[in-house]
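Supplementary Text 2. Reproducibility record for the structural model of the 577-residue chain.

All settings were left at their defaults, and a single model was retained for analysis rather than an ensemble. We include the record here because the model underlies the residue-level annotations in Supplementary Table 4.
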Amino acid sequence: MGGYTGKILRINLTKGKTGIEPLNMGLARKYLGGRGLAGKMFFDEVAANVDALSPENTIYIAPGVFTGTNAPSSGRFMVVTKSPLNGVISSSNSGGYWGVQLKFAGYDMVILEGKAGNPVYISIKDDLVEIKDASQLWGKDVYATTEALKLEFGDEKAKVLTIGPAGENLSLMAVFMNDLNRVAGRSGVGAVMGSKNLKALIVRGTGKVENANPDKMKNVLIAALGKFKGKSVTGQGLGVYDADLIGRETMPANHLIKKDACYRCPINCGRHNKLEDGQDISSKRETKSSFGSDCGIHNYEAIHAANDLCNKLGLDSISVGCTIAMGMELVQRGYIKQEELDGTPLEFGNAQGMVEWVRKIAHAEGLGAKMAQGSYNFTEYYGQPELSMTLKKLEIPAYDRRGIQGQGLEFATSNRGGGHVREYGVSPEILGFPQLIDKDSIEGKAMWVKILQDLSAVIDSVGMCLFTSVALGYYDYTAIFNAVTGFNYTDAELMACGDRIWNIERLHNLRTGMTTADDTLTESLLKVEIPAGPSKGSIRKLPELLPMYYNVRGWDDAGVPTPECLKTLGIQDSDGT
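Retained model, structure tokens:
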């Protein structure tokens, strides 16, 4: 059986027990792996009304079908749980090598249930799975925890996934950190792990993941790698370009130390940078927006220092930067009084203050405790939630959707909220792949969004990076999938898996109380025109697009999948079974 290991590791933290379950291949064929399979099992096993920070919530950590194979950019894994930030399904993606080691250890998924009576960590070495005391690690940052666990484990090839103090303090912006600088972020997944008294998982596998058809895989890889090199974005752009003042094209001369690729990745977009004191830290593309442009700061040292603190303390750099920027606006408007700041500046352009607020958020100090609950809850505390730049309470990353109609629709309908990786509409609307379409037009955009959302679900579920979609078409993923698994899926059958995954996530959100009213954008994105630049005068056309989108999805006017839609996808009943 290619790609799959055939085993799921289930750990009950309340009982202190571990067990092995066979992979349900019937579900795997319909939901692939990673995000899809974990999302389906979450839907089946976790009650809709569960408190996200209670022992009844469950965490599903799932590499993809390709993870650990020689498929390109195949080091990804997903974290699926109920989000404590906004109550919908959270599926956070990370790269690096941790998921690869889990597959090498023989597992397609780890399921974490219950709550430990005291801080623990999980040690996995092939078939040896142990729940160990983590009292000595509780309170330590990500870097110190990783170093201590690897020293105790005694194998440099072991990989650590951990939370930092932010997760322990139940910040709704806390993340999972793995391989020191890779992040399963967004939606507060780190708080769920902290609520279970689970500090970390360290894993080392000595096996390997086979392809069902190695000879076919060789030909598929040659074709795929050629496409990566032939595209300017994957061949060079993702590794270089960004914003003028703080972008990567201005960085290398003074800051770049080395590139940092995930497992089997030909794109190589990760970076290690050097501060003035010689410190080596990693950087993330979106961080430059949230801590840079959003906060009115163009100081590399400060942006990198804030990013490093997020990695060290276990925080989502997008949400934290946006929340600090929101705090700056609340101060500017007079809602936050100076006496609440305890002497720490919270103002646009103040780099030193920005960095200090990252630390205060992680440790829930003073006003930082309110900010740690995310910008929507933070602004709501001051009676101004309409100022929050969030969608479904999740902070919006570095794109202005008023000038890109398709991506604006995707953001409004995203099953997770204000994230940018539930379809990559930038590809056709800006980059021209697989074809350039008019970014200002609404014609055909509903179908484009559906296709790209379904494709993103496939990519997340097979364990590849979404950036690969800038070079590869859906037919490439089908070819790789068949070579890895030995199945004989058509393009339509593989894309139907993505459609099925998207609908299962939608069904979960609907049963938690989400309605069509939640498929929207902020007031500013809907009513305020872009004031300058190439998209001057543009405004969102969501009211016209949303009914078209529901129609192409096979949903009714209330955004609910119809019985006919569910039957076509093999989701027979309204409860998703």
